[in-house]
Amino acid sequence: MGSARYYAARRDMEVTDIMQPISKPADHPPVSARRVGVLLMNLGTPEATDYWSMRRYLKEFLSDPRVIEVPKAVWWPVLNGIILTVRPGKSGHAYKSIWNEERNESPLKTVTRAQAEGVAAALAARHGDSVVVDWAMRYGQPAVGPAIQRLKEQGCDRILLFPLYPQYSATTTATANDQAFRQLMTMRWQPAVRTVPAYHDEPGYIEALARSVVRHIAALDHTPDVLLASFHGLPKVYLDRGDPYHCFCVKTARLLAERLGWEPGRVQYSFQSRFGKAEWLKPYTDKTVEELARAGKTKIAVIAPGFSADCVETLEEIQFQVKDAFMAAGGERFTYIPCLNDHPDHVIFLADLVERELGGWVDGAGARAARDAEDHVTA
Ligand SMILES: C=CC1=C(C)c2cc3[nH]c(cc4nc(cc5[nH]c(cc1n2)c(C)c5CCC(=O)O)C(CCC(=O)O)=C4C)c(C)c3C=C
Ligand SMILES: [Fe+2]
Ligand SMILES: [Fe+2]
């Protein structure tokens, strides 16, 4: 085993195998155009703000065992009872206040599409048409499964899955990848896949956040006393069970503070969007802004570095609810710094991250297509 003769014999055997006439399987990607696919994935969004659209979206979301870890026998009666009776109306109202009327869709959808178009343009400039970029939502439309199928049909025999969450959590990153893998389970001939690691401490991401803070603060007629980095929360028990999300959020906030170089304590962090009665990650955003106002920090700026795109949790919850809590407690000036969205700093950072994670895949795409075409001529 392992001798030069052994390998020579193996090689001859494989050549003989390849030379057998083979019929082309039905799900074979077109040989002429082997490409690499990139799928940007975000959380999801209702199709409209009416009761039934909201109910459908919330049901899909809150039936995900990655999101709600309560055993089904206990959770289902609660979900199908009180939650899906009351929440669709309440959340629909919140969505209505931030809805993109022009496109008749949620801002998360609008921004995610723009991010995908930006990343596609950046990669096309570098690699021509050998990289195909698409986008999808974990819950609702456009769904992840059909997007994977579309990439395959466009000749992508390698796909990079990119969950658009800077901080890893099983509730977001893992469930997005799960959904893609579910589609792969249906395929006889799967594309090869890679997943983009979370990027909570990537220098390019911290730099884009810092530049955004500086840009927005420079446009104000005052200097905020405190910058609060507000992250979406999680039930605390998920941290106790090993979800690293909390630690990654804290690290992002620390790196942002270091990059800004402000005096200690001027950048703080907190967690928003509590759902249900259990304890969630602390400190809570609403309580924090109230305490800041009472402590005389009456001018604050809030940024949401855990969201790659503005959505109901930032545009409605931070800009209306959190602001109201701050003002009611004695706050005077409240500035919301938007998510990085499709700002060029962000798009270039995302494209660079994709490029790095494609390492070795993309430059070979043209050569692979030529080689594979040749194989099929001789086979
Ligand atoms: C950014 C990271 C997010 C984590 C972590 C997260 C965990 C998480 N979320 C819920 C419950 C809800 N989240 C809702 C909306 C929502 N959540 C995120 C992101 C994270 N969620 C985003 C980007 C959005 C907005 C989507 C949009 O279309 O704008 C909602 C729906 C809105 C509402 O009813 O408030 C719920 C519900 C749980 C339970 C959870 C972790 C266990
Ligand atoms: Fe959420
Ligand atoms: Fe919320």
From TrEMBL:
Organism superkingdom: Bacteria
Pathway(s) per entry: Porphyrin-containing compound metabolism; protoheme biosynthesis; protoheme from protoporphyrin-IX: step 1/1
Compartment list: Cytoplasm
Enzyme class: lyase
One GO MF term attached to the UniProt entry: ferrochelatase activity
GO biological process assignments: heme biosynthetic process
Family matches, as Pfam families: Ferrochelatase
GO cellular component terms given for this protein: cytoplasm
Enzyme Commission number(s) of this protein: 4.98.1.1
Catalytic reactions on record: heme b + 2 H(+) = protoporphyrin IX + Fe(2+); Fe-coproporphyrin III + 2 H(+) = coproporphyrin III + Fe(2+)
UniProt: Fe(2+) binding residues: H232, E313
Keywords from the UniProt entry: Cytoplasm, Heme biosynthesis, Iron, Lyase, Metal-binding, Plasmid, Porphyrin biosynthesis
Described function: Catalyzes the ferrous insertion into protoporphyrin IX.
Stated family: Belongs to the ferrochelatase family.
Listed name of the protein: Ferrochelatase
Species for this entry: Azospirillum baldaniorum
Gene: hemH
